[in-house]
Design a protein that fits this description.
Layout lengths: L3 H8 L4 H12 L6 H7 L5 H11 L5 H10 L5 H13 L6 H7 L5 H14 L4 H10 L2 H14 L5 H6 L6 H13 L11
């Protein structure tokens, strides 16, 4: 078994290749690695927090989802992006409020990663995304409708139908796209 102290030293060594290898080896410890990684989330150094988030994202447990959701408020943009990416890879319904809160971010990549994580969560996120469609600013509404369209869940049909006549051509496009992906509105002709 690898020495955990050396692995954590490698994780923080400043060498991306070494750190990535260490992240995978630490993640192999599973839940046993979570407390030490959780401690690193409080480090002053953003790079340390990023590698802790990266490593946590390799461990699929509900506890990790909660930790990653908390990182969506980190002061460092790269840490927030890493957390959203981790939640996309390991969807966690309890992260929905934090992901919705990340949708208005100034950074387009963070908005996209948060929406992608909501897509991965699926049906549990429909209600929150529907609320965003009713009350959010245009850039947030656009990510919300894209998420609903890509979800390919029958529960999105009423929400998408509601936006087929939206003032925004982009919103209408995604509403139509989502309904088309679900096969709604398709007409089949029988040969005579």
């Amino acid at each position: 078994m690898p020495d955990s102290k050396k692995l954590f030293a490698d994780l923080m060594a400043g060498d991306d290749e070494l750190a990535e290898a260490a992240a995978h080896q630490i993640a192999a410890f599973g839940e046993a690695a979570i407390p030490a990684l959780g401690d690193l989330l409080n480090a002053a150094d953003a790079d340390t927090r990023w590698w802790a988030a990266r490593t946590l994202a390799l461990i699929a447990t509900p506890e990790v989802g909660t930790l990653l959701a908390g990182l969506l408020k980190d002061e460092d943009l790269a840490v927030r992006q890493c957390a959203a990416l981790g939640l996309r890879e390991h969807p966690h319904a309890d992260a929905i409020p934090a992901l919705i809160a990340a949708l208005p971010a100034e950074d387009q990549l963070l908005r996209r990663l948060a929406a992608d994580a909501l897509i991965a969560i699926g049906a549990d996120a429909i209600s929150a995304l529907s609320d965003v469609m009713q009350n959010g600013p245009q850039t947030v509404r656009l990510e919300a409708v894209r998420a609903l369209a890509k979800m390919q869940d029958q529960g999105t049909i009423p929400v998408l139908f509601a936006y087929l006549e939206d003032d925004s051509a982009f919103i209408r496009h995604w509403a139509e796209e989502g309904l088309e992906r679900l096969g709604v509105g398709m007409t089949f002709f029988q040969p005579q």
